[in-house]
Amino acid sequence: MMNRDEKSEYNRLYRIANKARIEARRAERKAEPARVCSVPGCGRAYDTQGYCARHYMAFRRNGDPMLVLQRQVHGKTLAERVAAYTKRARWCWEWTGTRNPQGYGVLRVGESARLAHRVAYELEFGKIPFGLHACHKCDNPGCVRPDHIFLGTIADNNADMRAKGRNSGPRSKLTAKAIRQIEASSAKNIDLAQRFGVSETTIRAVRRYGQTWRPK
Q: pLDDT value at position 12?
């Protein structure tokens, strides 16, 4: 174990050595012939695996360096941003931007990330009242078509899930008795989540919405 002075000296020598390595690598690159992106007609500087940064990211995302799907949405209105990431088909309108692990589209609005289908609904029909969920008629989490979305409580959403045979998730683990115990408990969310075998998000929802969570 090094003492404080020894560690300080070690860090100083490491910075000197690392700086020397960086400078040596820069000198090697300057001596190398100039390399450009291997995509015909690009002309940008070589970055990785023979591609410039733009075409390399296209290769990583889409498996094809020629398929550049990046969109510049800075400075556009919220409606224009939603439209830029929406692929309209005959039935569902698929979200082509970022999705969360459950498959729902995610869009940054101000300082927070919001679910894209809720944003799309509000742009068409107005603000969603507090406590209501935006549920999919089409049962497609990636759909942002406003008329495929309806508003309902958690109970409404659970009823819709049961009608479609999708009631095997964490919410179905909670009985009416368990919900009453959660509402009456003063324990931490994480402790209750471990006790009942559900997520902390589920525990928070039970405490927040109360009766609307109760299974019918």
A: 85
Residues 147 and 187 in one domain: no
Q: What angle do CA 90, 95, 98 make, to 5 degrees?
A: 165
146 DSSP assignment: G
Question: Which residue type, as a one-letter code, is found at position 62?
Answer: N
Mean model confidence pLDDT for the chain: 78
pLDDT at residue 70 in the model: 52
Last residue of a domain, one of 22, 46, 70: 70
* Residue 88 main-chain phi, psi, to 5 deg: -85, 130
Indicate whether 94 pLDDT > 80. yes
Amino acid letter, residue 50: G
> Which one-letter amino acid corresponds to residue 126?
G
Print the SS3 string covering 46-82: CCECCECHHHHHHHHHHCCCCCCCCCCCCCCCHHHHH
Contact between 206 and 174 under an 8 Å Cβ cutoff? The reply is yes
Q: Which 3 state secondary structure label does DSSP give 113?
A: strand
